[in-house]
Amino acid sequence: CFFNMLIMFDLINYFRMKASIENILRKYQHDSTRLMDILLDIQDELGYIPEAYVPHIAELLGLSDADVEQTLSFYHFFSTRPTGKYRIYLNNSVVAYMMGRSEVAAAFEEALGIKFGQVTPDGRVGLFETSCIGMNDQEPAAIINNVIFPCLTPFRVREIVRDIKENKPVEEMINYQYGEGQNASEMVRSMVSNNIRKVGPVLDPHYKVGEALKKVISMSPEEVIEEIKKSNIRGRGGAGFPTGLKWEFCRKAHGEKKYIFCNADEGEPGTFKDRVILTELPRLLLEGMIIAGYAVGATEGILYVRYEYRYLKKYLEEILENARKKNYLGKSILGKEGFDFDIRIQFGAGAYVCGEESALIESAEGKRGEPRDRPPFPVEKGYLGMPTVVNNVETFCSVVKIILNGGEWYKSFGTEQSTGTKLLSISGDCRYPGVYEVAWGFSVNDILDMVGASKNQVQAVQVGGPSGSLIEPDEFNRILGYEDLSTGGSLIIFGHHRDLIREVVLNFTNFFIDESCGSCSTCRIVPVLLRNKIEKILNARGVEKDLDEMLEWAKLLKASRCGLGQTAGNPVVTSIKNFRHLYERMIQKNKEYDAGFDLQAAIRDGAEATGRIPIV
Asked: Contact at 8 Å (CB) between 357 and 48?
């Protein structure tokens, strides 16, 4: 009788979960390209995605089991095992460690009685590590059930765990004021701070929604593109391709439908400027996307936002709905016949490689975020095989200001090759971490003065995140711009008390290993070999030849097909170039070869277990 009851209970749960999944699938009209949204909704409702339900999901979507499994297995935040009622993800970025992450992690483990990667025996709490979550200006930080907990301390951790044990909703664990601006709004209610330190034309809070759009509809699409070309604005995501030229290519491309994508998947450790724009100026961003839609003849826009910013979901959805009510989105926008355009939000699920435009498109189609071979480029064959423009958050925001003030006005900022302004996310060893809008052409020294970092106390600056360059003080006079130091917007400052090789280079190399999609053998293998060499040197077994080999091996990464693989060796290459003396302090002198293998250590455990004395 008891076992019959258990079977009945399992059957009830099975049919309940099956019905829940079918409701979610109906919500997306059984559209297989919305697989990401479907999996996200299932995980939100059940806490995980049971493997047993993969065949059912696949059948209802007209996919194979493998199609569903490959997407499910690719993304960091999807899980096929229960992750607990309370799911804690603690950021492991380099800045988090600089600000006390190790002590915070130890406090979580001690208070919960589990290690990272485990769930408590009662199944209530899961403790996990995750890469940078866009909070480098307020570290250490964690995500608990999509709520951000910044500025953590061991004491704060014990408070959180106490609340968890009392079964409090996560939203009630907030023990101090909300962040400033829209962070405190009813739709956000977040403890996150904006930390906007310097405002320029893009961040200007006096922006009036819709003014640029009203101006645009009095222009032809070609005139809009010409104004963007006149400004010489280049994409703000890092590659720096001319925006006007990209739009022109897309407009001239043949396709039944065209799309506008906004890349808000800022996964580069140290970058958080898009988070601030999404919070304080989302209408500016959306207006830029609408203008792009008008210019290229697109009818649909997709705002691809990283998973870590899902706490903004309700807020952003409400703003979209209000835009539809004002006819900024929808049919015949502002009375312009034939100007039909709408935007939906697509959240990722934790994959840095989706910052690459073709991987982002693959993800939005419900697939693994693997970069495509190019050509064809997205402007010719992008989302669903149709011409697609992909620009980042900052680019779309800048477009609105260009339309309002003109291309020549925009060119009055910056340098000849790098026009306009740049939003910088600055963190690390400085007095004022946060977001700064400056004109291209500022030197690194200027930046250090601005953020309260004494130059004689700064050992190095990482420009452009892990994929950028680690520069030394002799290079602090270099300027930020495409003609010198190009950056997507991240600068991390390291004082002289930091161990650059152990704390920075090793951390960044591990990041690239974790975030590789694994498609290219170069990206899959070489970073692991580089990490092994770094660890060998840190363990005092390195020789001079190891440095030369790392530089040679890193060249192989240029054969990778996307930016992640091609730049995965940059932490090693730029640190050897500019800080070789730090490596040379640790390597063995007058020794040409060391395998790095310690036979004594390798057999120690076995010898102790058997009571034998090794003869080595």
From this structure: no
Closest-CA residue to 128 (of 369, 353, 354, 350)? 350
**Backbone φ and ψ of 498, nearest 5°:** -90, 140
What percent of the chain shows pLDDT beyond 90?
86
From 1-5, 130-134, 330-334, the region with the lowest mean pLDDT: 1-5
Q: 131: which DSSP letter?
A: S
**What is the rounded distance in angstroms from the CA atom of residue 275 to the CA atom of residue 315?**
13
Do 262 and 391 form a contact (C-beta atoms < 8 A)?
A: yes
Rounded Cα gap, residues 477 and 446, in angstroms = 8
Question: What end-to-end distance do the CA atoms of the chain give, in Å?
Answer: 64
Locate 513 and state its tokens.
Answer: 């290993």
Reduced to 3 states (helix: H, G, I; strand: E, B; else coil), residue 111 is: helix
How many angstroms separate the CA atoms of 235 and 265, rounded?
A: 15
Helix (H, G, I), strand (E, B) or coil at 159: helix
How many whole angstroms separate alpha carbon 129 and alpha carbon 107? 14
CA angle 573, 576, 579 (to 5 degrees): 135
Rg of the chain in Å (alpha carbons)? 25
CA distances, 9 to each of 5, 49, 83 (Å):
6, 19, 21
Q: Residue 148's beta-bridge partner residues?
A: 143
Maximal C-alpha separation, the chain: 88
- List the beta bridge partners of residue 297: none
The answer to whether 230 and 304 have CB atoms below 8 angstroms apart is: no
Beta carbons of 574 and 471 less than 8 angstroms apart = yes
Amino acid at 449: D
> pLDDT value at position 188?
96
Tokens of 192: 């996150």
